């Protein structure tokens, strides 16, 4: 599950659980995240930001395949249908983040794999601890193709073709310092606490600008035309300048 807390001008969305929780994305967790993002959007004002963090050794280990298997009644085809259902549900989380009227920051405090990595990359900024955790798109190793919105986000957010290749076609497990070099994340920090502290500093710096959230969201959408096309979103021109 997840919790939502506001401290000053910053919303903190925290994926919660015991120390061994992998924060796998099943319909329950996806619904919880979407509910939190809806509250953030409804409570947004000029000069707010969102930071997403996670408890334990995982940021998120992707879709909950164990849930799909256990809920399928032993039918492989039904398990695949349930996986497709999660893919569809999670697409709305990505849409929510791309449309959120404020800066967004992911503080990756543990492993981020598959859909868990995409969750992080759907934020404007990604900060990561260097002492533990990897970024990993596991689909090629598992024999699965990528949903169209996965590849759209990776292509749009990562400017280096060799980095896209290594992540999607090689299933490379990337640690924080290398992830900075490859352009997958913005910065690496000594441990989870330092990563969160850096995220807070960045959030406070951004909120001081008091940007109009609606304008910010529309600029973000216009920046990533492939993503909004795949998600079915539209960008609209907005002028609120004092002219």
From TrEMBL:
It catalyses: a (3Z)-enoyl-CoA = a 4-saturated (2E)-enoyl-CoA; a (3E)-enoyl-CoA = a 4-saturated (2E)-enoyl-CoA. CDD domains: crotonase-like. GO terms for biological process: fatty acid beta-oxidation. Pathway: Lipid metabolism; fatty acid beta-oxidation. InterPro entries: ClpP/crotonase-like_dom_sf (IPR029045), Enoyl-CoA_hydra/iso (IPR001753). Pfam families: ECH_1. GO terms for cellular component: peroxisome. Its EC number is 5.3.3.8. GO terms for molecular function: delta(3)-delta(2)-enoyl-CoA isomerase activity. Belongs to the enoyl-CoA hydratase/isomerase family. This is Delta(3)-Delta(2)-enoyl-CoA isomerase. The lineage of its organism: Eukaryota, Viridiplantae, Streptophyta, Embryophyta, Tracheophyta.
């Amino acid at each position: 599950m997840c919790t939502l807390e506001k401290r000053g001008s910053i919303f903190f969305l925290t994926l919660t659980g015991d120390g061994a929780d992998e924060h796998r994305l099943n319909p329950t967790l996806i619904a919880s995240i979407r509910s939190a993002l809806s509250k953030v959007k409804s409570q947004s004002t000029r000069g707010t930001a969102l930071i997403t963090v996670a408890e334990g050794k995982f940021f998120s280990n992707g879709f909950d395949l164990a849930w799909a298997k256990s809920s399928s009644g032993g039918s492989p085809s039904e398990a695949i249908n349930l996986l497709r259902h999660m893919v569809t549900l999670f697409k709305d989380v990505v849409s929510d983040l791309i449309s959120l009227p404020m800066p967004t920051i992911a503080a990756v405090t543990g492993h981020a794999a598959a859909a868990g990595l995409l969750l992080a990359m759907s934020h404007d900024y990604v900060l990561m601890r260097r002492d533990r955790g990897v970024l990993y798109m596991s689909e090629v190793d598992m024999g699965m193709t990528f949903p169209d919105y996965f590849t759209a986000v990776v292509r749009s957010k990562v400017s280096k073709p060799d980095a896209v290749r290594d992540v999607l076609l090689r299933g490379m497990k990337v640690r924080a310092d290398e992830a900075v070099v490859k352009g997958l994340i913005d910065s690496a920090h000594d441990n989870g606490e330092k990563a969160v502290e850096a995220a807070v500093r960045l959030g406070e710096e951004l909120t001081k600008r008091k940007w109009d959230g609606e304008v910010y969201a529309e600029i973000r959408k216009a920046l990533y035309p492939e993503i909004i096309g795949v998600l079915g979103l539209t960008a609209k021109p907005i002028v609120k300048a004092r002219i």
